[in-house]
Amino acid sequence: MTNVPIPIPPSFGELLSVDAKVIAGFPSPAQDHEQRRIDLNDVLVLNPLSTFLFSVEGDSMEGHHIFAGDRVVVDRSVEPLHGRIVLACVDGEFTVKQLHRRGGTVLLLAGNPRYKAIQFHEGQEMSIWGVVTWTLRSILHASPSRS
Asked: Is 2.10.109.10 the CATH classification of the domain at 45-136?
């Protein structure tokens, strides 16, 4: 994971939005649909001043559909509740994991059974930097094994 957050630029991007549902089965006959431009900030960014973009490295979160090469949108203003996917800083290194907070126990859980939970010990530094609100993935570069 990259150690430097990338602030979301004021104009993250704009796409053409077609006001129509897309069927992932058999196609329906073509229809005329309303088109308008939408700003991706309006879709992906809840709080612009506290939202950052990180690149993901590694396969520890594949069970949560977060893959190496993905980008995650992280919002520092969202409350890191039990069960949420968070960006944590552990001993000075960023990591994306699922937050487990129950009965005074705090763990960071991987989404891949090959990785153990991160348990915290006295003298270890850990802080929740923000909450992952979106995952961005290019399907042009996705491997066939990604789903």
From this structure: yes
Domain boundaries, the chain: 45-136
Q: pLDDT digits over 14-66, tens only?
A: 544 445 555 666 655 555 566 777 777 777 888 888 888 899 999 999 999 99
pLDDT in tens, 81-138: 999 999 999 988 999 999 999 988 899 999 999 999 998 888 888 899 999 999 989 8
Residues 108, 127 contacting (CB under 8 angstroms): no
Active-site residue set: 60, 97
Give me 30's structure tokens. 């073509």
Cα-only R_g, the chain: 18
Token code pair at residue 14:
């704009």
113-133 burial, b for 16+ CB within 10 Å, e for fewer? eebeebeeeeeeeeebbbbbb
Helical spans, DSSP H, in 9-56: 40-44
In Å, how far are 90, 92, 105, 119 from 124, measured between CA atoms? 8, 10, 14, 10
Question: With contact defined as beta carbons under 8 Å apart, do 39 and 130 qualify?
Answer: no
